[in-house]
Specification:
Length: about 100
């Protein structure tokens, strides 16, 4: 039986030694077009885990593994899509420059 994308992402997070919130926030903030991540904690524990994940930087290997599960441009809400952002057309626009390569 094939794993669901959420199960595949959980495996990537586990292999990288990350929580799912670290994986999620690290992924979203790696995108050049994102200036901040909006978090939505329901509890104080959620808030603390999300704040602790704020400085997570994902390696290119982890980002590539995520892209292999949910390819860039896959729209999970196609009825809400009205255009294609340039970052989905041009791969170089999808990620911030790696701090290691600077």
């Amino acid at each position: 039986m094939d794993q669901k994308p959420s199960q595949q992402l959980a495996k990537i997070a586990d292999q990288a030694g990350l929580t799912m919130i670290q994986l999620a926030l690290g992924f979203v903030t790696a995108h050049r077009g994102v200036t901040s991540a909006i978090i939505g904690p329901r509890t104080t524990d959620h808030l603390h885990s999300q704040l602790a994940a704020a400085d997570t930087v994902l390696s290119a290997d982890v980002l590539d593994a995520i892209d292999a599960i949910v390819a860039p441009g896959v729209d999970l809400a196609p009825d809400e899509k009205h255009d294609t952002p340039p970052a989905l057309v041009h791969a170089v626009l999808r990620r911030r420059p790696s701090p290691v390569s600077r």
